[in-house]
Amino acid sequence: MTTTEATHPTGALDDAFHVFDTTLRDGAQREGINLTVADKLTIARHLDDFGVGFIEGGWPGANPRDTEFFARARAEIDFRHAQLVAFGATRRAGGSAAQDPQVRALLESGAPVITLVAKSHDRHVELALRTTLEENLEMVRDTVSHLVAQGRRVFVDCEHFFDGYRANAEYAKAVVRTAHEAGADVVILCDTNGGMLPAQVTAVVSTVLADTGARLGIHAQDDTGCAVANTLAAVDAGATHVQCTANGYGERVGNANLFPVVAALEIKYGRTVLPQGALAEMTRISHAIAEVVNLTPSTHQPYVGVSAFAHKAGLHASAIKVDPDLYQHIDPERVGNTMRMLVSDMAGRASIELKGKELGVDLGGDRALIARVVERVKERELAGYTYEAADASFELLLRAEAEGRARRYFRTESWRAIVEDRPDGTHANEATVKLWAKGERIVATAEGNGPVNALDRALRVALERFYPQLAKFELVDYKVRILEGKHGTESTTRVLIATTDGVREWNTVGVAPNVIAASWQALEDAYTFGLLHAGVEPAE
């Protein structure tokens, strides 16, 4: 049995094509990302669940965090699909791989696969490594052959390959050939500076493949916005190993994004690169990893962004009502996403009807009702409201028109919020609300960490005696923006509502001449919507 067969985890895909993820190493170099060992372990589990073939965990021996990660990953994660990869460099000039402490640390990591970074640009060899071109080739040969002799599978990253190829093509190819002949399974051509374009990548990969006979991979940075396209161009030219990061995380502007690359390979190329059913988990995995790194998911990311299958124009909606494929390149469910209709002043009858169906409100093709809703939306948008990102407020408007009355669980008499400044620079926020619920007048006061938060707490105090169902939802965020012209201020709330189907996020909106008034409107909608979806019958 070969080393490769022995180390392949149960359930791994055929070895003919590799999806290699480097989020934990290269992706972690993104500005604003600082992963703990626990974070890295969590992300590794998500990536293994997704079904990538290889997870590059970091550089053991280079820093204590990565060394600890490999030790804990071996003990704590039972990889079902992925193999763990340790990253390091070729041995130092003038030494031997067998005696090099950095090479020894790679072996001690216990990782079955090791990726070595090697210089393939002649100027980098001479200026950065400060050695000869011949010695650099010997460093590659010695390190690869030593690790292979120790039973490790070896991949070689040819750093700055494309720039090196333009400067000295024969030397760049010599590095590839040397790594291949020494026993490297795959030699990866790295666009380290991210300056290549797809046609250039295709030409270089084709030539190197023909001239060296090595199995080739691609590692593309996104500095020209072409990392995904460059990766697929390399595949077109014969590369059978793609290196990517989740959500495109990486230094500078990032790396080739794992998710559109995998989706293109599976859906557009018809190539099976994930376990069966894994593609439908892609949106969930993308968002879960974004949560771990504490970065808001890109709403406009291909395939997995919340706007990836969102439709706003009335013309689009009319066509989608007939056949969704007329304005969508795939069924969003294939990647675990959903189609969304956006309601705005661009909305037509088809948009409203489709949105109603999405929200569970059947308008029954009532043209007069739909026309009233369209006009109501346009009136409200003219007044400054924005419904495309406020589904909860739109549903309340829609139900009010459909049912001939607004859902009302309480009536507001008055509210106020006080911000108290203190000499020591601290602040206190207190809010008082007066309202009527189930025939009773309630006055409630609460403190908060801001005026809107204080209003939220006071409203909850006022209502929770009458509506214990409020325990089923929670307001988690507030956002306020200043509008141009006469409309004043728009406030939105983000509400997490627990139901029998799980937890879903909703938004509400309010518009008024000032921040507090706008926020109060958004809060009224949030609580009304929460009680509606908790199954509470209106009291008014």
Main sheet attributes: strand count, strand direction, barrel closure:
8 strands, parallel, barrel
How much strand? 15-25%
Low-confidence stretches: 1-12, 314-318
Major β-sheet strand ordering = 1-2-3-4-5-6-7-8
Shape: elongated
Word description of this protein:
40% of the residues lie in helices and 21% in strands. It has 540 residues and is α/β, with parallel strands linked by helices. The chain has an eight-stranded parallel beta barrel with strand order 1-2-3-4-5-6-7-8, surrounded by nine helices. A three-stranded antiparallel β-sheet has the order 11-12-13, covered by helices on one side. A three-stranded antiparallel β-sheet has the order 14-15-16. Helix 2 crosses helix 3 (64-76), helix 15 packs across helix 16 and helix 17 runs parallel beside helix 18 (515-533). Mean pLDDT is 87; it is low at 1-12 and 314-318.
